[in-house]
Amino acid sequence: MAVPAIGAAGGVNLSQLAAMYRQQVSDAAAGTAAAQGAGGAGAKAAAVRGSSFTDAIGDGLNQVDQLDRTAADKATKAATGDLTDVHDYVIAATQAQVATELTTTVRNKALEAFNDIMRMPL
Fold first, then answer.
1. DSSP state of 44
2. 3-class SS at 35?
3. Domain residues for 18?
4. Confidence (pLDDT) at 9
5. What pTM does this model have?
6. Is residue 2, in this structure, part of any structural domain at all?
7. Contact 65, 104 (CB under 8 A)
8. How far is 103 from 18, CA to CA, in rounded Å?
């Protein structure tokens, strides 16, 4: 699945991406719980871990989205002359860029690990 660029110009809505990811992890946790048998302690633990992981990923993506929105807002203010200190924009843009690069790197590493697991012989 190809994910378009993250950002204000032609980017993907990170809130939607976080919601889609939460749904996928929730569905996977529910499938794991059903496979292990209804009412089992292992199934409940897996569902709780999946939920915690989902929340952590969703919160992280929401923070990246907020940083991107803040940078875009400050860029608009800088362009219109409403921003008193241009350094605020530079700092916000750098924070958004670093957060986006980190998110992309983590995603790439996760996909690489998944592909390595899928290539393992049975």
1. H
2. helix
3. 14-119
4. 45
5. 0.57
6. no
7. no
8. 12
Would you call 23 exposed, middle or buried from its count of C-beta atoms within 10 A (0-12, 13-18, 19+)?
exposed
The amino acid that residue 102 corresponds to is: L
What is the residue-averaged pLDDT of the chain?
A: 78
Q: Is residue 39 part of a domain?
A: yes
Q: Is 5 among the domain residues?
A: no
Distance from C-alpha of 109 to C-alpha of 111, rounded to nearest angstrom: 5
d(CA 106, CA 83): 33
| Torsion of Cα atoms, 22 then 28 then 32 then 35, to 10° | 140
Q: How many Å is the maximal CA-CA distance in the chain?
A: 62
d(CA 4, CA 13): 10
Count structural domains, the chain: 1
- Phi first, then psi, for residue 30 (nearest 5°) are -65, -40
Do 48 and 25 contact (CB within 8 A), yes or no? no
The stretches in the chain having pLDDT less than 50 are 1-10
Of 58, 74, 56, 73, the C-alpha closest to 15 is 58
